[in-house]
Amino acid sequence: GDVYDPVPPDERFDLIFWNMPFGFVEPDRQLTPLQRSNLDPGYASVRRYLTEAHRHLADGGLLTLGFSMDLGRLELIEELAAGAGLKVRIARSADAVPDRPYDLRLLHLLPG
Q1: DSSP letter at 33?
Q2: β strands within the chain, DSSP E
Q3: Is pLDDT above 80 for 73?
Q4: What are phi and psi of 69, to 5 degrees?
Q5: What is the pTM of this model?
């Protein structure tokens, strides 16, 4: 589905995780479905994930995001999070290795 579209409007979760398409491309870029699995034009889907999370996150729940500093733009994630009343904290990190030549981060998105 498209971000939260398949989720019933009244459903709430203690944990919401998304291994987002890390790669940022300009908003006007047209992509194939395969490219959309890795790229998010203008981080439009990330914006929806952050701004609509409150509808599905239980009180005291945790919103998380899989991310890569090598492939993505953390400053834009932080800007979008701030616009949604959230702050970004890097909870876990895994550096690049030969079999995976990019880093991985687990972001926690907290009220603030």
Answers
A1: H
A2: 13-19, 23-25, 39-41, 57-67, 86-94, 104-111
A3: yes
A4: -70, -30
A5: 0.91
Residues 66 and 97: their CA atoms lie apart, in Å, by: 17
- DSSP annotation of 54: G
Element (H, E) at 109: strand 104-111
pLDDT at 104 over 80: yes
Q: Is the pLDDT of residue 1 over 80?
A: no
Distance CA 76, CA 8 (A): 29
CA distances in angstroms from 79 to 10, 12, 82, listed in the order given? 28, 25, 5
> What type of residue sits at position 27?
P
Tell me how many degrees the CA angle 29-17-85 measures, rounded to the nearest 5. 75
Q: What angle do CA 14, 19, 97 make, to 5 degrees?
A: 125
Q: What percent of the chain has pLDDT over 70?
A: 100
6: which strand partners? none
Please write the tens of the pLDDT for every residue from 46-66: 999 999 999 999 999 999 999
